[in-house]
Amino acid sequence: xSQVMFDLDVLRSFSTGIALGSYARAADRLGRSTSAVSAQxxxxxxxxxxxxxxxxxxxxxxxxxxxxxxxxxxxxxxxNEEASAAMRGADLxxxxxLGLQEDFGETLLPAVLGRFARxxxxxxxxxxxARSAELRERLELGKLDLALAWxxxxxxxxxxxxxxxxxxxxxxxxxxxDVLDAAWWKERERRDGAGRGARKSKEPLPLVLLDAPxxxxxxxxxxxxxxxxxxxxAFTSASLAALWAASxxxxxxxxxxxxxxxxxxRAIDRTAVGLPALPQMxxxxxxxxxxxxxxxxxxxxxxxxxxxxHVQVEAAQFH
Length: 319
Known about the structure:
The chain has ten helices and twelve strands. The strands form four sheets. The chain has a five-stranded mixed beta sheet with strand order 4-3-5-12-6. Helix content is 45%, strand content 22%. It is of the alpha/beta class. It has three domains: 8-86, Arc Repressor Mutant, subunit A (Orthogonal Bundle); 93-166 and 282-318, Periplasmic binding protein-like II (D-Maltodextrin-Binding Protein, domain 2), CATH 3.40.190.10; 170-278, Periplasmic binding protein-like II (D-Maltodextrin-Binding Protein, domain 2, 3-Layer(aba) Sandwich).
């Protein structure tokens, strides 16, 4: 039996269509006709020797075999890009100073820095994890070249910012158990004697938030004030990891985007607990210089690619 050699160009069309949610959009993105992409997908199924798609309403969804092949496609395309980058930048040398917020550190740092280091072994990287205000300050002082942070709309004009994504803020509680059994709801039941449906109680909502100054902290408290929901600070810390631990333990609710949530917390249904809707937050890639040196530009490209892929996966899981 002859060895199957998957075509990377076909795998790119396959993965792009899934990421964009439409093979018509994938054809447009890749500069091909829809019929050409359709032919590629038929070729891919023939090579795989199994069905990769099934009908889902007016569209298509992946079979189990399709999901398996998609995971391999991502790995093969990533490795191809890494090899290509290594050939283009084998002699790239220099120094890149990168800043990230805690939200992105565990999610992005290992994979991105691993890819970069393998492709550009002569480039030295210094990375630091800090809050957005500190990262922007370090950029202004010339202590960082790049920083991935939440955009609070207060960045200095000297910095060059590129919006990467816009993500919804969500109320976050413990992953296990019923959030309605938290201390806040038990106290409301005790005082009102009206069960879980009683939402007129003035018992303050316990919040788990970062220490001030923090733009997100202000957004949360102002949103609750406008909605007439009383609140109190149940736990504050300078560490995001500490917030996750406190939220997981049921000390109160915190607020974050879906990006980088650990497994022991989850987004809760705000309507079930009578809480107001929250706005969105913008993620931005900040550069100290508009025209950075080649190592900085290459790392910036990898970061943008990794973030956008992560956001697409999160969006697909959410829907």
